[in-house]
Amino acid sequence: MNSKIKDKNTDGLFEAILSLETMEECYKFFEDLCTVLEIKSLAQRLQVAKMLSEHHVYNDIVNETGASTATISRVNRSLHYGCDGYEIVFNRLKEKKEEQTKNE
C-alpha cells in the first residue's frame, strides 16, 4: 500500500466510493466530487491501462484514447511497478463478465 496517500481524509473518500451501489449513484457522486475534465482524465487512464494490459502499442493507444505518450508512460509504470490496483480491477471485471455470460 502507498503510505503517501493513506490518511483519514483518503479513508473517508474510499469509504464513500465503496458505499455506492449503482452506476447512477457513481455518476451523481463523481459529478459532484470532480470536474468533468478530472473524470474524463481518470476514465482515460483506466482505458490506457486496459489497452496496455492487452499489449496494444503506444500509437494505437494514442489514436484510440487521445492520451499523451507521457500519460501512457506513467500508466505503464504503474502497471509494472505499482500496487497492482489495475490488475485487481481488471480481474474483477473479467470475473463479473464471465459470470454474466454464464448466467445468460
* Helix count, DSSP H or I runs of 4 or more residues: 6
Number of strands: 0
SSE string: HHHHHH
Measured as a percent range, the helix fraction is over 70%
Parts with pLDDT < 50 across at least 5 consecutive residues: none
How is the biggest beta sheet arranged? none
**What would the principal axes of the Cα set say about the shape?**
globular
**Radius of gyration, in angstroms, nearest whole number:** 15 Å
N-C termini distance? 37 Å
- Secondary-structure class: mainly alpha
Fraction of residues in β-strands: under 5%
Mean pLDDT: 95
Can you describe this structure?
The longest helix is centred in the last third of the chain and has 19 residues, at 85-103. The chain has 104 residues and is mostly helical. The radius of gyration is 15 Å and the shape is globular. The chain is built from 6 helices and no strands. The termini are far apart. 78% of the residues lie in helices and 0% in strands.
Topology:
Elements: H1 8-19, H2 23-33, H3 36-53, H4 58-65, H5 69-81, H6 85-103
Helix pairs in contact: 3-5
Please give a handful of descriptors for the protein shown.
104 residues, mainly alpha, 6 helices
